[in-house]
From TrEMBL:
It comes from the Bacteria. Keywords: Signal. Residues 96-145 form the Soluble ligand binding domain. The lineage of its organism: Bacteria, Pseudomonadati, Pseudomonadota, Alphaproteobacteria, Hyphomicrobiales. This is Polysaccharide export outer membrane protein. It holds the Pfam family SLBB. Residues 7-87 form the Polysaccharide export protein N-terminal domain.
């Protein structure tokens, strides 16, 4: 849906001010006191508007200059050396509907200059949420596209020009990750920032308890783009996994698991630059000794109960 901006054209419902000048004082549109006449017209559903002594002129689908030339052509042999100026006084055909999580949902009128998605959203009061958790959906005819607002800001080439009758819907979808395992707390956790690395994510959930967490067992589960998975696993192994039934999600991404050994300094360095992505699952495994301690505690309680039973029996 991208590409260069199209030249603005007149549409049905637009209100035009047409000023006709004549060189002589006694023409159709001039007098001794004034050499021009201004006429206001509204473009009708058939794309035309009627002018005195001229009749119906097609305006819809034409630029202001093309319409000016059409009126001049219609005035040939009728007016004395005519000239024409056309300006818009209202352009309901050149609007974009902006709704969703913006401060002022409305029909936004477009200027004659080309405007991009972020500029139109700004006219609607701007997003009600941070750009890194705001998604923009553009509907144009039967086509629909969705992008993160932050991406449109960071990558101007994706911030395409809007067209009349486009629909823009802004929605809030906070980026979150899910923490499971031996963390201080578990569950779905919002990023709370534009970017988040693995160590920051671990810190958000209270970090790993040294007495319970296996430093060698930090895992990140996610769906990655096929190119990334192929590079990580090797093209041949990747193809073999697909042949054996590995399937992608609805966006064409494939599951992969990253493992980090936090007992090694290199993993701590990598963790500072490893970006957490929305919908990642971060899992921290328990230290093997935890299960052993649970068994010992269970055994000690069982023996205590048995010992009490023996004492009771002896009495």
């Amino acid at each position: 849906m991208g590409g260069a901006a199209r030249a603005p054209v007149i549409g049905v419902g637009d209100q035009l001010k047409i000023t006709i000048f004549e060189a002589g004082p006694d023409g159709l549109f001039s007098t001794a006191d004034s050499k021009n006449t201004s006429i206001t017209v509204i473009v009708q559903p058939d794309g035309k508007a009627a002018l005195p002594y001229v009749g119906e002129v097609i305006f819809a689908g034409r630029t202001l200059e093309q319409s000016r030339q059409a009126v001049l052509h219609s005035l040939a042999n009728k007016a004395v050396e005519p000239d024409v100026i056309i300006s818009t006084e209202g352009s309901p055909s050149r609007t974009v509907a902006v709704s969703g999580t913006v401060h002022k949902p409305s029909l936004v009128p477009l200027d004659l200059t080309a405007e991009k998605i972020t500029e139109v959203i700004a006219k609607a009061g701007g997003p009600a949420s941070e750009p890194y958790e705001s998604y923009v959906t553009l509907v144009r005819g039967r086509k629909t596209g969705t992008a993160l607002l932050q991406n449109l800001i960071d990558n101007p080439s994706e911030n395409i020009y809007v067209e009349p009758k486009d629909q823009i819907f802004v929605s809030k979808d906070p980026r979150t990750f899910t923490a499971l395992g031996a963390f201080g707390k578990s569950g779905r956790v919002p990023f709370g920032a534009r970017n988040l690395n693995l160590l920051e994510a671990v810190a958000l959930v209270g970090g790993g308890d040294d007495t319970q967490t296996d430093a060698k067992g930090y895992f990140v589960f996610r769906y990655e783009e096929p190119e990334i998975v192929s590079d990580l696993l090797g093209a041949q192994h990747f193809d073999e996994l697909i042949a054996r039934g590995m399937t992608s999600d609805k966006d064409g991404r494939y599951p992969i698991v990253y493992r980090f050994d936090m007992s090694v300094a290199d993993s701590l360095i990598v963790g500072q630059t490893f970006p957490v992505k929305s919908r990642d699952v971060i899992y921290s495994s328990r230290h093997p000794s935890i299960d052993y301690l649970k068994f010992v505690n269970l055994l000690s309680r069982t023996m205590s109960v048995a010992h009490q039973g023996v004492d009771t029996f002896d009495n």
